[in-house]
Specification:
With 229 residues, the chain is of the alpha/beta class. It contains 9 helices and 8 strands. A hairpin with a 2-residue loop joins strand 5 and strand 6.
Length: 229
């Protein structure tokens, strides 16, 4: 008897749905060896029980059958991180290089002395693979964790002055950046999970594509987080 016969195994797509993440994120973690998987009959498979344990260890969202989530909410929500990071409009740039440079110049929580290394890390991560997740949205972050003297996660929402080619997974140009700065890998994964979760809500994507006031945007994200608790 096949030793795997009693286990429930998932595809990459199913794991992405279970964790509320883009499929490309799961693929990236698989290639980087960050998520447990097995090769069965030449195919990548994920043992469900292992994925659930791994997700809980990293404080990631686990979505149930009816769409509710069992997010292990800590004292700092995505809303808190956005309030700390700020929302910025009309950031100029004809390419990723210029947009990142101009965005960093607006982020007052990052010391000027740290700009060069943050800028380099953002570009290094983008060269590894685009952080454009589709629907005009990208989630830039540094490839390595940096000590930026932050007490907790900061997420800056950047609205670009014009659509920017970003090599996103759906080929569409990007108009909004969720730029993540965290204090640990665990916190980074948690913020990435929460951003991915709230961006699944159609009403939020519509708000991001329109002319929305900052406070209304924060209120909407806070409501989505509250409903998931």
């Amino acid at each position: 008897m096949n030793s795997f016969s009693k286990d429930t195994f998932l595809t990459t797509e199913e794991v992405a749905r279970l964790l509320g993440l883009p499929e490309v994120t799961v693929q990236r973690w698989e290639h980087q060896g960050k998520i447990p998987y097995k090769i069965i009959n030449g195919q990548v498979s994920f043992k469900k029980s292992e994925i659930i344990r791994w997700a809980k260890a990293h404080d990631l969202t686990i979505r149930e059958k009816h769409g509710k989530s069992k997010d292990l909410i800590s004292e700092h929500l995505l809303t808190d991180a956005i309030v700390a990071g700020g929302i910025y409009h009309n950031i100029d740039g004809d390419d990723v290089y210029t947009v990142f440079h101009n965005a960093l110049n607006n982020l007052g929580f990052i010391d000027k002395k740290d700009h060069d290394r943050v800028f380099d890390e953002l570009l290094n991560r983008e060269e590894l693979a685009s952080t454009g997740i589709g629907n005009g949205i990208a989630i830039p972050h540094t490839r390595n964790r940096l000590d930026l003297n932050l007490n907790y996660a900061h997420v800056a929402i950047i609205f670009l002055n014009k659509p920017l080619p970003f090599n996103a997974i759906d080929g569409k140009p990007v108009t909004v950046l969720f730029m993540i700065f965290t204090t640990s890998v665990k916190e980074h994964l948690k913020m990435l999970s929460r951003i991915s979760f709230v961006l699944q809500k159609s009403q939020l994507k519509e708000m991001l594509a329109g002319d929305i006031e900052d406070q209304n945007l924060i209120t909407q994200i806070k409501q989505i987080e509250s409903d998931a608790r």
